[in-house]
Write a structure and sequence with these properties.
Length: 96
């Protein structure tokens, strides 16, 4: 009897561990990419002024980081889920 109780508790814990992340309303990452790419642009400017990289390399790095920054900003704007989608996900999680 005790063995079955232990199994039941372990099963409930495993199910809870799997379903808990599905019930979250906000994503784990919120716009961190944009901040990282802005910091990288600042760092490129510091490296160029310190003479660690040449002008051509700094320009190429700025172009690449700027391209990634624009893509991250667009992705962050598109990621905001509609309230109906979040509610539907919770209903599906509970029903499943």
């Amino acid at each position: 009897m005790t063995l079955w109780l232990v199994f039941a508790v372990m099963t409930a814990t495993a199910i809870f561990a799997v379903l808990w992340p599905l019930g979250r309303r906000k994503p784990l990452r919120e716009g961190n990419d944009v901040a990282v790419y802005r910091d990288q642009l600042d760092e490129i400017g510091r490296d160029r002024s310190a003479g660690l990289i040449g002008e051509a390399e700094a320009k190429a790095a700025r172009v690449e980081v700027s391209r990634r920054l624009l893509a991250a900003a667009d992705a962050a704007a598109a990621e905001k889920p509609a309230p109906e989608a979040a509610a539907g996900r919770q209903v599906t999680t509970i029903a499943g």
